[in-house]
Design brief:
Elements (H helix, E strand, L loop, with lengths): L3 H4 L1 H8 L3 E5 L7 H12 L3 E5 L14 H16 L4 E5 L5 H13 L3 E5 L9 H7 L6 H13 L5 E6 L1 H19 L2 H5 L2 H4 L8 H4 L7 E6 L8 H5 L2 H6 L3 E11 L3 E7 L2 H4 L6 H5 L12 E6 L6 H15 L5 E5 L4 E4 L5 E18 L4 H5 L15
Parallel strand pairs: 1-3, 1-4, 2-3
Antiparallel strand pairs: 5-6, 5-12, 7-8, 7-12, 8-9, 10-11, 11-12
InterPro entries: CNPase, CNPase_cat, Cyclic_Pdiesterase, P-loop_NTPase
Subcellular location: Melanosome; Membrane
Family: Belongs to the 2H phosphoesterase superfamily. CNPase family.
């Protein structure tokens, strides 16, 4: 079982000192419990394994396993609230609802979630799984679970997720930035960019709304609906890097009337995980350097989606590429502050912030679940018996 979180020394050391929720997903007989034991052997007394089997969850009868699922969630919440470094959920976790709920528990308790499936050759082979499982499931039951696994195999997005201590550090830095900019006469002269009328005051700390766990998105997948999502997930470098530690370098903080973010400077190795068309997809008319869109969203104005942060950053990059370097306002404690017009302010950090992060993925409630709408009928995945 080749996984970065089992083999890479720096990743193992980082996870030991952080808070990680391993959400194991896999079919009966796929080697999932063996993977759980391997994680337990690696992290020893820092790790707690919560088994779906021990709580009576039957993957082939998920709807009838409500009490067991509730008990697992309660055990996860208890472990996380106690500050256990590594919590492992050993269950099939083959439905979107379960993945989203466990991700929610991780976020509520400031844990980074890793969604991991065994890499055995037979992990989705119906014939082999039917022979290996001790549950006595028939081919039809296994096949139904395979289809569900396929449907939930792609996340909302992939990215690097900051650990809680680094999130707090970056948020404090962002608040310092907002406080410094908001107090400047130069900002007050342009406050109309934010308030719509020049005489109105703006409290920048209240203007931006927090958007959850801090991360740098690499690939937006929309659960497989986005172009190139499946191809990205199947890349060898993505599979090998999943669950590994990376050191992100944050070089600037910026704010616009729409978003608050941090610019990320990617290394050559990190660029291997960056989609080749990420910049072209946003600004088709420009030839921007790969990785120009890399950022961490720190907040958004009311009604603004986090995707806007990267677009705002690209506007600044494009402006600079075209020779407009903006207007230097003054040097803040964080670094030199520049105004680029139209309410866009950026401070280049005199001391770039190096922040460790884990390459993982995110599952959340689907849009129809948030809105209460009936889900659209989607095209069925072809699930043939292997």
């Amino acid at each position: 079982m080749s996984f970065a979180f089992l083999e890479q020394e720096d990743t193992v050391a980082f996870i030991r000192s952080s808070q990680t929720l391993f959400v194991l997903r896999g079919l009966p007989g796929s080697g999932k419990s063996q993977l759980a034991r391997a994680i337990g052997d690696t992290y020893k007394d820092l790790c707690t394994i919560i088994s779906g089997d021990e709580h009576g969850i039957k993957p082939e009868k998920y709807a009838a396993s409500a009490e067991g699922i509730k008990a697992v969630d309660s055990a996860v919440a208890d472990c996380c609230s106690s500050g256990k470094a590594v919590v492992v959920v050993d269950d099939t976790n083959h439905t979107h609802g379960r993945l989203a709920r466990l991700g929610e528990l991780a976020e509520e308790n400031q844990y980074v979630a890793l969604y991991v499936e065994p890499r055995t050759e037979w992990s989705r082979n119906v014939e082999q799984l039917t022979k290996k499982t001790h549950r006595g499931l028939n081919k039809g039951q296994i096949q139904a679970l395979v289809c569900s696994m396929v449907e939930t195999s792609l996340p909302f997005y992939f990215g690097w997720f900051l650990c809680p201590t680094q999130q707090e550090k970056l948020r404090n830095m962002a608040n310092e930035f907002l406080s410094a900019v908001g107090s400047l006469e130069a900002f007050k002269e342009h406050v109309g960019d934010f308030a719509g009328e020049a005489e109105k005051e703006v409290n920048l700390q209240q203007y931006f709304q927090d958007k959850g766990v801090l991360h740098c998105t690499t690939k937006f997948c929309d659960y497989g609906k986005a172009n190139g999502a499946k191809e990205y997930a199947e890349k060898q470098v993505v599979r090998e890097s999943y669950g590994s530690k990376a050191d992100l370098v944050l070089t600037a903080l910026f704010l616009t009337p729409r978003t608050l973010g941090a610019q990320v400077s990617l290394t050559e190795a990190q660029l291997q995980l960056w989609p080749e068309d990420a910049e072209k997809e946003a600004v088709q008319s420009a030839d921007l350097p790969r990785g120009s869109r890399a950022h961490v969203t720190l907040g958004c104005a009311e009604g603004v989606d986090p995707v806007q942060t990267g677009l705002d950053l690209l506007e600044v990059v494009l402006q600079c590429q075209q020779g407009d370097k903006g207007e230097h306002v003054q040097d803040l404690e964080l670094g030199p502050l520049t105004y680029y017009g139209k309410g866009v302010w950026m401070v280049k950090l005199s001391e770039p912030l190096n922040t460790p992060a884990i390459f993982s993925s995110f599952y959340g409630p689907k849009e129809e679940e948030l809105s209460g709408k009936e889900p659209e009928k989607k095209k069925k995945h072809k699930c043939t018996v292997m």
